[in-house]
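Following up on my earlier thread - several people asked me to post the actual chain instead of describing it. Fair enough. Here it is, all 143 residues.
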Amino acid sequence: MLVNVSYNNKSVTKAIDEAVGKPFSLKERIRKGGIGSPRLVISEASVQINNLLILDNNRNYCNVEIRPKGIIVGFRSLLESYALVIPFYKLTLYKGKAEEYSIHKDNYFVKIEAKARDRGIHKFFQKLLHLKNENSVTRIEDL
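Reply from S.P.:
Thanks for posting it. Predicted structure:
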């Protein structure tokens, strides 16, 4: 679900909370060692997201927020803020190239640059992969 979150809209907030859960409390954020990513550089995006990003000439950045049942990928275009809401069961992570991560949901995707010197980005994606595995359903092969 790709939504405009620039304005305080109760129906949008409710839909996001239903999809990925309410934000973690301060105590849970500290216990998890943080729930937000560092600033991430977008190298490529799906058509829907790219159409929003090309409206301005700035470098395209995003951030990822972890929620109890999924993640929110946030980015800005012009003066508007957008969020790609992804529940864990629809989240797919790829490490395609050596210096690139890819976050997919259905027909949306965002590819993120991750240089070798950016250890914070690599640690964040390891944490994200671990959380996805914890929240995934048990498969028949695992029994």
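The longest strand covers residues 70-77. That should answer part of your original question.
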